[in-house]
Amino acid sequence: MTEQLDEFDHIKPVVEAGELPEGERILWQAQPDWWRLALSAFRLKYVVAVYLTLALWRVGATHHDTGSWAEGFAHASTMLPALAAGTLLAMLLSFLMARSTSFTLTDRRLVLRFGVALPTQLNIPLKDVDHAAVRVNSDGSGDIPLTLPKKGRPSYFQLWPFARPLKLVSAQPMLRAVPNAAEAANLIAGALAASQGGRRVTVAEQRVAPAGLRAGRTAAV
User: Fold this and answer.
1) What interhelical angle do 44-66 and 80-99 show, nearest 10?
2) pLDDT at 55 (0 to 100)
3) Regarding beta strands 4-7 and 120-125, do their DSSP bridges make them parallel or antiparallel, or are they unpaired?
4) Residue 163 CA to chain centroid, in angstroms?
5) What is the pTM of this model?
């Protein structure tokens, strides 16, 4: 089995050194950035965009029927409570998920612990990772998807929100909203190379540049 997905009633969000087998050591740990998690996993921008689109449609429809812009904006304002509720819900869920999630890299595996109501642990042996990539945002955070063998791979819905988007059939675990993602990717690349007999494992990096700058593509090993 390539990786192991276990569920626990009581589990600490962060892996501690005392939990590891003898001889295994922690190389890196991090928790996702809750705001970036809200933007990417919970699609906060799209939630707001949908509500604003509906509000504008209501303004236009009301103006078309009554000829009054004031009445149109008055009708659209009734949607503000729903917009506020949807936005706050997405932010709350991302905050709770970020607090209950940790990424741990050891010299043998990657461990993902996540889940608010039902904590889950995913163990990924480094020797089974075929490829890793990193997408870096302008604030330095980023996502690190992992390509694994098909055998024993969890489903997309078991992994969400830490599954690579649109990979429904061949699900890929993804460390999402990782702070200092480029540095984390370099550490993961080094651990992969060391665990696989020195084979050079490439971590492709795609940086998302700020507006006005061209995004580049580099590689780290």
Assistant:
1) 180
2) 83
3) antiparallel
4) 7
5) 0.76
